[in-house]
Amino acid sequence: MELINFCRAHGILIDSPPPIGVWRRYPTDDHPNKRNGAVKFMGDHAFVQNHAMDTEVSVWQPDTPVKIDRAKIARDLQAVEDKRRADQREAANKAAFIMKSCQLGRHDYLKRKGFPDAEGYIWVHEGKQFLILPMRVQGHLVGCQMIDQEGGKKFLYGQRTSNAEIKIDNGGVDILCEGYATALSIQSVLKRFKRRYVIHVCFSAGNMKKIAADLKPGIVVADNDASGTGERVAKEIGWKYWMSDVVGEDANDTHVRLGNFQFGQSLLKVL
Questions:
Q1: Does residue 262 lie within any of the structural domains?
Q2: What Å distances lie between residue 185 and 1, 10, 189, 212, 238, CA to CA?
Q3: Is residue 82 part of a domain?
Q4: Domain for residue 187, yes or no?
Q5: pLDDT digits over 127-161, tens only?
Q6: Tally of structural domains, the chain
Q7: pLDDT of 44 higher than 90
Q8: Nearest partner of 256 among 244, 238, 270, judged by Cα
Q9: Which of 193, 205, 185 is nearest to 254 (CA)?
Q10: From CA 8, how far away is CA 12, in angstroms rounded?
C-alpha cells in the first residue's frame, strides 16, 4: 500500500504493484485516457515517473525492511533484461522493414500543421496512411514514431526511445524541440532568415535533457505545457530557450497563429 500511495502522490492511477523488474505504464490524474505514468517495482524499492510532469525518475523505498529472495529477483531481472534487448532488436528490424516499405508523399497530419506541400515517409498499412518518423541513436535506426491521419501517435512496441532523435542538420546552432511539426516550423523560419541550424527532434521533454548532455550549449524550443514541464526542463538544461506566451501552445501552434515573419522575429530574439 505504501507504493500505491507513493504512485498516487505522483498522479499515477495504480491499484497494485506491477511484476518485478518490468516497467509498466498507467493512466494519470491529468491524462486518464493515456498512459503517462510508469512504475518499475524491484521488490524492496521501485522507480516511479509521471512523464507528463516529471523529468526525473523518483525512487520509492518502504518505511520498514522487506524480506525478499534476492537470488530469484536477480534471475527475474536478467530475464527481463534479455527480453528488453530482444524487443529492442525486433523493433529496430521492424522499423527498417517499415522504412523500406515507405514512399515519399503528403499526409493529412502535415497539412493540419501548416505544411500542405511537405512530403514525408508514408506507410500504408491496413488501408490507413501513416507518417513515419525514423528515430535514431548515434545514427543507428532504433524505431519510429507512427502518426495516423487523425494525428494519433505511437512508437513501436519495445523500441528504444531514450536518446533517440531525428536530426535536421544544416550545419548551425543546436536546437532542441519535442515534436516534428515544431521542427518543421523552426526550419521554415530559419531558412527564410538564412540562418543555419541543427534541429534535434527529441519526442519528449525528458529526452531533450538526455540529448542536451552530449551537445554544446544551443537553444531549447520548449512547449508551454499547462503542467510547466517544458519550461522546467528548459531551465534544467541551462540553455537559452524560446517558449510561446500562450499556455498549451508549442512552437508550431505559434507559427500557425502568427505566420512566418512574426514567429521568426520572436525566435530570432533568442538566437
A1: yes
A2: 47, 33, 6, 20, 23
A3: no
A4: yes
A5: 999 999 999 999 999 999 999 999 999 999 999 99
A6: 2
A7: no
A8: 244
A9: 185
A10: 5
Residue 255: Cβ within 10 Å count? 27
For 90, phi then psi, to 5°, come to: -65, -40
**What is the helix (H) or strand (E) element at residue 27, kind and residue range?**
none
Give the pLDDT confidence of 230-257 residue by residue, as tens digits: 999 999 999 999 999 999 999 999 999 9
Cell of 160: 528504444
55 found inside a domain? yes
Contact residues for 99 (Cβ-Cβ < 8 A; gap 6+): 121, 132, 134, 141, 144
Range of the domain at 176: 167-271
Buried b (16+ CB within 10 A) or exposed e, 116-145: eebebbbbeeeeebbbbbbbbbeeebbbbb
Of 18, 37, 60, which closes a domain?
A: 60
User: Please, what is the average pLDDT of the chain?
Assistant: 93
Which residue type sits at 236?
E
The CATH number assigned to the domain holding 258 equals: 3.40.1360.10
Torsion of CA 193, 117, 135, 40, to 10 degrees: 100
- Average pLDDT estimate for 48-61: 88
What does pTM read for this prediction? 0.80
